[in-house]
Write a structure and sequence with these properties.
By secondary structure, this protein is an alpha/beta fold. The chain has helices spanning about 90-95, 100-110, 130-135, 140-145, 165-170, 190-195, 200-215, 235-245, 260-275, 280-285, 295-310, and strands at about 25, 35-40, 45-50, 60, 65, 95-100, 120, 150-155, 175-180, 220-225, 250-255. Helix 5 (about 165-170) links the parallel strand 8 and strand 9.
């Protein structure tokens, strides 16, 4: 593994953690069997989103790299190549854990240079993936954000978020907190093959109900809508109906996109499970990572029409902060490491 290119002491700007602080562990328990954890001491935890991103925020926090959700389409797979780790099975089973994430975040939020910008979590890999059940990094992260009244949002497929429900309620009393759960479809057979490590869509919808019952509004990112496998009118209707019945405040569709790393892994999976679709996908994604604009617009229109029918609307997020931050010092903000984004 190419730790040396990402560790302190190399003299390069890409150093992310100390070479003497990498501990590799495996746990012989059913939920972690076959997974290797690389515990590291990160040098920074607040990452800047690239300027060309479509995302409505500039900063992210990601306590993990790699994800045991094992979604075959995950756009973040290529990030594992930076460590010379496999972007296929390696991404699913070699998980980097930034064990000092909570203390590091607290320090960075307390810096005079930090202006209290919105921080998004779960936009790279899921912060409530299986590893979080053991490492419990998110409570400390939420506590730091709460104590600094710093607005934040979380996107997850993990029902483990319910463990931190009380902390989320406390944070929501002092700052803006946005919660979104990803439910791209309710088709059980499709879920088992493309998202094998995630809680079922039904369990995610139950989590939305629980959050809503406790006064925490929760939107749904209907992602991904998978062409030719999850985009039939009856599938879209069933999903939007289930989302509405869960009490979600909004539903926002996002069509599958296939970046390098994810594209190769997804297409290999497609060839094995749906070989008759390979040629159709090659045509649809011939222009790059994204489906054609006409197709994206069609899906968006269908979902929004269904949402209106069932009484919910497209998602939105504000960026208000409930406390007044100190006046930032003169001079530019530190660039920080960049982060891949969901869109």
């Amino acid at each position: 593994m190419r730790w040396e290119n990402l560790t302190a002491g190399t003299g390069g700007p890409a150093a992310l953690f100390g070479a003497d602080a990498v501990v590799t562990r495996t746990f012989d328990t059913p939920e972690f069997r076959g997974i290797t954890f690389h515990e590291v001491r990160a040098r920074s935890i607040v990452n800047r989103v690239p300027g060309a991103s479509r995302m409505p925020f500039e900063w992210t926090v990601n306590p993990y790299r790699g994800c045991s959700h094992a979604c075959v389409y995950c756009f973040a797979r290529n990030t594992h190549s930076y460590l010379d780790l496999d972007t296929g099975l390696g991404f699913d089973s070699q998980i980097v854990v930034k064990t000092n994430a909570p203390e590091l975040l607290r320090r960075e939020l307390g810096s005079r240079r930090w202006t209290g910008a919105h921080i998004a979590m779960g936009t790279n890999v899921d912060c409530y993936q299986r590893a979080e059940g053991r490492y419990r990094l998110m409570p400390g992260i939420i506590e730091a954000l709460r104590d600094h009244a710093n607005p934040f949002s979380i996107l997850t497929k993990g029902t483990l978020i319910l463990r931190d429900l009380e902390l989320l309620r406390q944070a929501a009393e002092v700052t803006e907190v946005g919660i979104s759960v990803s439910v791209g479809f309710t088709d059980t057979a499709l879920w088992r093959t493309v998202e094998p490590g995630t809680p079922s869509p039904e369990r995610r919808l139950d989590a939305i109900r629980t959050l809503t019952e406790h006064g925490i509004g929760c939107g749904v990112l209907m992602a991904p809508v998978i062409p030719f496998l999850g985009d039939a009118p009856e599938q879209l209707r069933a999903t939007v109906r289930a989302v509405a019945e869960s009490g979600a405040t909004s539903v926002t569709p996002l069509v599958l996109h296939l970046r390098p790393g994810a594209r190769e892994w997804f297409m290999a999976w497609l060839a094995a499970h749906h070989p008759h679709l390979v040629e159709r996908y090659e045509r649809m994604y011939a222009g790059g990572a994204y489906a054609p604009t006409w197709y994206q617009r069609r899906i968006t229109r269908q979902v929004h029409e269904l949402a209106a029918e069932f009484g919910i609307g497209p998602g939105g997020r504000g960026a208000a902060r409930k406390t007044v931050p100190a006046e930032p010092p003169a001079g530019p903000q530190p660039a920080g490491p960049t982060q891949l984004t969901l869109l």
